[in-house]
Amino acid sequence: VWIFGYGSLVWRPGFEFTSRKVGFIRGYSRRFWQGDTFHRGSERMPGRVVTLLEDCGACTWGVAYEVRGEQIPASLQYLNMREAVLGGYDTKLVKFHPQEKDAEEPILALVYIATPQNPSYLGPASEEDIAAQIIVSSGCAGHNIEYLLRLADFMRYFCPQAEDKHLFSIEEALISILPCLYYTDESLEET
């Protein structure tokens, strides 16, 4: 089984896997439109995390993880709690295209997508408003700023050819609000 991650799963999968591949899926755009009251926010101050929006001409970059044997039930149970129960995400099957030049056909992968029907869905807002909400939000997995910066770092270092205007516009808005914000390339050393 392959599982595609496009948010915090790219740096913190939290489950055992056999292999991982960087690549993309077509037909979706990544958006900071999902509220988070557990991992990156609270009931009082929900954080902003990403979901996917159907978008014919777009592609979203991330990481696909291959899980085998005994890894399958353990990873799916873990992800069901993390993404569906605590996050409000549904699962879908998508075609994942590995970044590798000699890659074979696309791989079918599970992906978690938060839809407007779930109670934590926040929907669109300006990049400045999203950045302002991220700045004040923190949950049991850490500060919402870390989530945004780690995702931007992943895109910069692992998918430099890809564009994600929404993500990088929010990062720019956050940095303009907090001009003294300082982070280094060491933020991805754990991956």
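[next item in queue]
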Amino acid sequence: AALFMESARKGSIVSRANSIGSTSASSVPNTDDEDSDYHQEPYKESYKDRRRRAHTQAEQKRRDAIKKGYDDLQAIVPTCEQQDFSIGSQKLSKAIVLQKTIDYIQFLHKEKKKQEEEVSTLRKDVMALKIMKVNYEQIVKAHQDNPNEGKDQVSDEVKFNVFQGIMDSLFQSFNASISVTSFQELSACVFSWIEEHCKPQTLRDIVIGVLHQLKSQLY
């Protein structure tokens, strides 16, 4: 009986100790969770910092690329290098650089169109020269095949006299009709003179008159 009572007393003490321990344990904060939160919070901040740093680097790279583009435009476009007295020694703004670039591109388009027109004209001239070359080659060949042909043709002096007579007649009407006071009047008078005095029938009458005059002089 004494042993049983002693065991019961020890069991009661252990039970109370356990209940006190559990109560104390429940009242003590969970330091493991706090340690876990404490270590996790700097990781989140570090991740945000990395994202912020990556975004800053990307933005800086974009700005550097834009700046390099404007610098390249200023180096390429000749008008950007010229001194602008309205601005002075100030650095050209991006708007001015873009406007000067647009103006220069439009200028290049006009020059390209002008050069294309010149090339087209030169090609026509080359084609005409080729045709003339073929004709002269045929004339030379015909003369070589028949060297006696053409001896009875009109002399160069007579040809010149015919040409001179036609030009003298045209110049008389030209001088009487054309005003050289200004370029505008000259242009207007020239077209009017061509329409009035260079008609096919008028030119035919002039040529016939010159030929009759030369015929009377020669014979």
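[queue empty]
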